[in-house]
């Protein structure tokens, strides 16, 4: 009799579980939102990180559902999610109604000191930190960093000179640019003098290579933590392995302890933060807070800049005419070899902005933006409701490749961004750095870095596609930011 009762209970529990799971995946019927039905346990994420990148999932939904509704439903594991398919709704979420969508819904754990960084924070703590950190990214402060960044670009050119020894040589750009960007970001934001361009064995490079950016398991853990935050807390999941957090906290502490307080040298974040911290208005940050923000600046900048530079050099190598137009404009500003670049002079080359913008359009490093609905949200002029807690995805890649917005979107054409063509676009049709109050805090720094590097390289070298570069490029399905597997370019000295 006992066995029958036990079996009966198991069957009831299974039926209840089945009914419950079906209810979860049928939520979009109640909200009148068209959807792709998910399946337990992955929802619609089964192939993400293996057969497809998350941007491909959102791109497919965007293309299929755009004509039907302003949002399309799906599931991240068991969490309801929507892809926004209408630019006006994108603008509402990111800008006009952004107070209802400020959070990214990212799991944080007190035991992981780096998880309390600006990207992950939400609520009043986010606002407080944003107000403290924003002044560090003003044009005035960015200008202070110009000289040291120019020196890094010179080091990159010297590296190319030494490597190619006067003859056209194939180089794996991705790797070299990763080491270069790591040095720039490490020195600027961690206050630690780095030289992984020449020495691949540095600790910062080892940690970055081992832990940052890639991995399906890492991606799934990220979505698991965000979906099941209570469980993640109970089992003490952390975002960064202990080795990583210990390393970054140690690095930042040593930068603070060893900074030279006798000289007014403020060209790195730690020096700037320390001087802001002595200012009563800004209040001081703890070691863990400083480490968490310095860490996120390093991580957010390192891969986005590496990949933007790699894609840009790849595109202008594929279309040599564009490279020559750009070089001509650069050489008009820097007529003599000895002419020094300055913040103002690199901003006098309109075609440089066009080339960078077109690269960021075609290959947006952050191809999807994330938000969480903090209350139920009725979509204007519809009977559709996005329920509270829904994960919102803004499909930047899909928007940048929408042929109703950009004619022949797969073509690389910097003229899309000349003065005349820029006039009448929708505010959210081009958003590599996003829009609204949670847009990229480092965008001015990023543009300066990209310009300094491209000007420095194109004054000295000519680039063409190397024979080992696959055509078309293969995207890395496991990477957090948009990146290609292999970009080999042939580099030669300019006569
Ligand atoms: C080409 C380079 C870069 C691109 C394309 C880029 C793009 C983005 C995007 C799309 C976001 C998300 C905005 C949103 O969710 O609405 C973001 C956020 C962020 N980025 Fe960047 N980024 C770049 C470089 C940098 C650099 C160099 C830094 C640091 C110095 C940086 C620091 C951050 C931080 C801290 C956030 C979070 C901002 C917040 O939540 O308030 N990024 N970035």
Automatic annotation (TrEMBL):
Q: What is its main location?
A: endoplasmic reticulum
Q: Which CDD domains match?
A: CYP6-like (cd11056)
Q: Which UniProt keywords are listed?
A: Endoplasmic reticulum, Heme, Iron, Membrane, Metal-binding, Microsome, Monooxygenase, Oxidoreductase
Q: Where in the cell is it found?
A: Endoplasmic reticulum membrane; Microsome membrane
Q: How does it sit in the membrane?
A: Peripheral membrane protein
Decide whether keyword Iron is in the record: yes
Extract the Pfam families matched here.
Answer: p450 (PF00067)
Q: Does the keyword Endoplasmic reticulum apply?
A: yes
Which cofactors are reported in the record for this sequence? Answer: heme
An example GO CC term for this entry is:
endoplasmic reticulum membrane
Q: Name one GO molecular function term.
A: oxidoreductase activity, acting on paired donors, with incorporation or reduction of molecular oxygen
- Which domain of life does the protein's organism represent? Eukaryota
Amino-acid positions noted as binding heme in the UniProt annotation, renumbered to this chain: 440
- InterPro entries named among the record's database cross-references: Cyt_P450, Cyt_P450_CS, Cyt_P450_E_grp-I, Cyt_P450_sf, Insect_CytP450_Detox
Describe the family membership recorded for this protein in Swiss-Prot or TrEMBL.
Answer: Belongs to the cytochrome P450 family.
The name of this protein is Cytochrome P450 6a14
* Species this chain originates from: Pseudolycoriella hygida
The encoding gene: Cyp6a14_7
């Amino acid at each position: 009799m006992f066995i029958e009762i036990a079996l009966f209970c198991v069957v009831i529990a299974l039926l209840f579980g089945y009914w419950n799971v079906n209810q979860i995946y049928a939520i979009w019927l109640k909200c009148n939102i068209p959807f792709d039905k998910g399946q337990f346990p992955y929802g619609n994420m089964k192939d993400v990180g293996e057969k497809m990148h998350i941007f491909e999932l959102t791109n497919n939904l965007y293309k299929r559902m755009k004509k039907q509704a302003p949002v399309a439903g799906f599931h991240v594991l068991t969490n309801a999610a929507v892809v926004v398919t209408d630019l006006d709704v994108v603008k509402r979420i990111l800008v006009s109604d952004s107070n209802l969508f400020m959070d990214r819904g990212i799991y944080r754990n007190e035991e992981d000191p780096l998880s309390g960084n600006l990207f992950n924070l939400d609520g009043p703590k986010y606002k407080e930190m944003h107000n403290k950190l924003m002044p560090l990214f003003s044009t005035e402060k960015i200008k202070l960093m110009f000289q040291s960044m120019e020196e890094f670009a010179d080091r990159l050119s010297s590296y190319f000179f030494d490597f190619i020894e006067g003859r056209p040589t194939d180089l794996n750009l991705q790797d070299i640019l990763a080491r270069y960007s790591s040095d720039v970001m490490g020195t600027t934001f961690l206050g630690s003098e780095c030289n992984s361009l020449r020495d691949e064995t540095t600790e910062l490079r080892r940690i970055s290579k081992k832990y940052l950016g890639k991995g399906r398991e890492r991606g799934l853990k990220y979505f698991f933590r965000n979906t099941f935050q209570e469980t993640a807390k109970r089992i003490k999941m952390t975002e960064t392995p202990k080795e990583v957090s210990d390393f970054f906290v140690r690095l930042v502490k040593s930068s603070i302890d060893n900074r030279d307080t006798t000289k007014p040298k403020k060209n790195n974040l730690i020096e700037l933060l320390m001087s802001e911290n002595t200012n009563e208005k800004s209040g001081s940050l703890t070691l863990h807070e400083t480490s968490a923000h310095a860490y996120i600046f390093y991580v957010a900048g390192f891969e986005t800049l590496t990949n933007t530079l790699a894609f840009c050099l790849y595109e202008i190598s594929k279309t040599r005419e564009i490279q020559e137009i750009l070089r001509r404009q650069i050489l008009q500003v820097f007529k003599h070899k000895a002419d020094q670049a300055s913040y103002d002079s690199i901003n006098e080359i309109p075609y440089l902005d066009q080339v960078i913008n077109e690269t960021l359009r075609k290959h947006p490093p952050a191809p999807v933006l994330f938000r969480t609905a903090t209350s139920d949200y009725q979509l204007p002029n519809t009977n559709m409701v996005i329920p509270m807690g829904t994960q919102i995805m803004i499909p930047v890649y899909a928007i940048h490749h929408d042929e109703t917005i950009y004619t022949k979107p797969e073509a690389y054409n910097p003229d899309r961004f000349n003065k005349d063509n820029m006039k009448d676009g929708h505010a959210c049709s081009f958003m590599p750095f996003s829009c609204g109050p949670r847009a990229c805090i480092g965008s001015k720094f990023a543009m300066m870095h990209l310009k300094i590097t491209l000007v420095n390289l194109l004054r000295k070298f000519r680039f063409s596609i190397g024979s080992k570069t696959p055509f078309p490029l293969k995207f890395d399905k496991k990477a957090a930011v948009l990146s290609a597997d292999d970009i080999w370019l042939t580099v030669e000295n300019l006569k």
